[in-house]
Amino acid sequence: MREVREEAGSGGGGEVRLRALLVLGVAEHGWWRGRSPPLRRRRRCCSRMSNPYTVSSSFSTVSTPTHGWERQGAAVNEGPEILQRGGRTFLIYSASGCWTPDYKLGRLSLTGSDPTSASSWTKKSTPVFQRSDGNGVYGPGHNGFFTSPDGSENWIVHHANDSASDGCDNGRTARAQKFTWNSDGSPNLGTPVRLGASRTGPSGEPSAVSTTYTLANRNSGKCLEVAGSSSADGANVQQYTCNGGAHQRWRLEDLGDDTHRLVNVSTGKVLDTENCSAADGAGLRQWSWLDNTCQRFRFVATDGGHVRIVNQATGTVADVADCSTADSADVRQWTWLNNHCRQWRLDPA
Length: 349
What we know:
The chain has strands at 2-11, 14-24, 27-36, 41-51, 54-55, 60-63, 77-85, 88-95, 104-110, 121-123, 138-147, 154-161, 173-181, 187-188, 213-217, 223-226, 237-240, 250-254, 260-264, 270-273, 284-287, 297-301, 307-311, 317-320, 331-334, 344-348. The strands form nine sheets. Strands 1, 2, 3, 4, 5 and 6 form a six-stranded antiparallel beta sheet that branches. It is elongated. The protein is built from no helices and 26 strands.
């Protein structure tokens, strides 16, 4: 299988996009998303190709959104990705409106000999990857696949939201997790894991690759943590002697606008400015993700490998109260004064 991402323009059948190239023997097939006006129904299309960028036949429809779970918000089949193993071929696609929490993945299995014929594909009647309210994951879809560096593991990468009210925009984040295979040879994509959940990286990755960080204060050498490992909204953020606990580890999630959210590994909640206050001394705490500027931070380099952590809403920085070196000293926001109490070092953990 080869994958391409080439816009194909618009035609009489509506907008189409070349998504993947499947090589079966000597035949190459391009996968398209077609839109059928005025219904705005997106369907899965296929055509033969003479090379990775030249279509050599008319296209045919191999899948349309027929099940109720494919029609939530809108009737959609899109984002095809080919997955092959043990002589079997599967097409994983996204279904329903991407702006809904019910965006999800479905599966076609190639059970015939002609990939351009709908009769050669068998659709699974239920989704294979969908929202998990228990894990706080909504609208998981538009996926890809990769193998671990040592070839021993299979992984799925996808985007999703951590709020049911989020839509089809820059609030989504890219996520990856390992998947397995069922006894019948079909993929078992599992359940989307909670944002911030600690997971071992792909097998064979260099040991230097880090997915989480501690934030050590330059003045005290102590680490930013959620007090008492509390999972409650509003739990205080403080400094404490670094101990490697999950409540002291943070994921830096790029939000695409030169800001990040800091997600606590223990709780899955984010660093937040209390009540969005702009005042010096306003507390930093943890809170569920609300996608506001009070929860977005920029990292501005100072010197010696340190940064100041700047709140996007207020322009103030993360500061240890009164430059204390004590355990449990409060971490708050304050105007930048260019001292060590307001500088932090990010250490892979």
